Amino acid sequence: MNDRLDNFHKYLTQKAGVKEEDYNAFLPYFSVKNYQKGDIILSKGSICNHIFFVEKGLLRLFSIDQNGTEHIIQFAPENWLLSERESLYFGTPSDFHIDVLEESIVVMLMQDFIPKASSISPEFRNHNEFILQNHIRQLQQRVNLLISASAEARYLHFIKMYPDLTLRIPQWMIASYLGITPESLSRVRKGLAEKNFK
Amino acid sequence: MNDRLDNFHKYLTQKAGVKEEDYNAFLPYFSVKNYQKGDIILSKGSICNHIFFVEKGLLRLFSIDQNGTEHIIQFAPENWLLSERESLYFGTPSDFHIDVLEESIVVMLMQDFIPKASSISPEFRNHNEFILQNHIRQLQQRVNLLISASAEARYLHFIKMYPDLTLRIPQWMIASYLGITPESLSRVRKGLAEKNFK
């Protein structure tokens, strides 16, 4: 079953520098699941027990406010990791939902994957620290954009971060991620089109 | 000089669980500085080489946009850690500034403090992972508040997070942190006062 996992294997051996024999020792600590569009992987109030690596497809982490409006915290296309880290690490009920936006193949890393893989592979231990630091970097940049930048600057940052998502998801989801109204996003896109920016 | 460091000592031995003898082994990896109100600890474009622990006083991490407006990413009163982690970890020039809002005593943790302290003390190693996970938790909650919550909900969260800061900093700084105008903050405070909320 794991011979399908080209992306996950490449991610660990090439990006994280994990040795081939160590990769084999990781096998007991993950499994693979197929999901259909619309499947819910995590619901608010549940405990998140996994980190999800997207081998193929697209996941989304989002909250729902008291008016029933969805607010998107993160997208995870191929080669991205996604989790509700607060719930996973602190054992608290999740404030967020995770669902499936496209038919997906997801590598489910068990809760003890990180400590086990870190004890097996010093390269993985270093990479895990990189992942945490990088997550902080991205979230801090996002906070800064949300409190300081124009809707246009936020949209341009989004395109850079998720280059192929603009074609894969509806406009309202991009607006939700950016914290602006769909109407504002339309104006931004129209303005950029007039400047010959796709 | 280090006998002044009650807060830092308590933080490490009580909160992080570091053993007394291990604390002594940490001494070569930090120093202490006094700062005056208005001092600049880190400027945009510089490399951040330290993590700052606030023994006494108040620091602030902020960006300045192209119009010269300041946007506050984080406050750090007593017992908080502050750094520009992107610059510290990735070695990139900082996008942010750090300055001093009140006369402060700051413990300057050198860049190799974390790896050295982690190799000396397993308790510290665990605590450092907690710090990173907690930072992700706080930033993710902040992103969610910024894209989903009312100005009132954001202000209430701010008070909970920084209970004594409302008396120590000017209103415009709170508004800047919340990503709202000072006028909006006045309306929120007035609304809360009418509900008998201080």
Q: Which helices and strands, and how do they pair?
A:
The structure is a homodimer of 198-residue chains.
Chain A: H1 6-15, H2 20-26, E1 30-35, E2 40-42, E3 50-64, E4 70-77, E5 81-82, H3 85-90, E6 97-110, H4 113-120, H5 122-148, H6 151-161, H7 171-178, H8 182-194
Antiparallel strand pairs in A: 1-6, 2-6, 3-4, 3-5, 3-6
Helix pairs in contact in A: 4-5, 7-8
Question: Can you walk me through this structure?
Answer:
Two copies of one chain form a homodimer. Chain A is an alpha+beta fold. The first copy, chain A, has a domain at 2-121: Jelly Rolls, CATH 2.60.120. Chain A has helices spanning 6-15, 20-26, 85-90, 113-120, 122-148, 151-161, 171-178, 182-194, and strands spanning 30-35, 40-42, 50-64, 70-77, 81-82, 97-110. In chain A, strands 1, 2, 3, 4, 5 and 6 form a six-stranded antiparallel beta sheet that branches. In chain A, a hairpin with a 5-residue loop joins strand 3 (50-64) and strand 4. In chain A, helix 4 crosses helix 5 (122-148) and helix 7 crosses helix 8 (182-194). The radius of gyration of chain A is 18 Å and the shape is globular. The A-B interface holds A 63, 65, 69, 71-73, 85-86, 89-90, 95-96, 129, 132-133, 135-137, 139-144, 146-149, 176-179 and B 63, 65, 69, 71-73, 85-86, 89-90, 95-96, 129, 132-133, 135-137, 139-144, 146-149, 176-179.
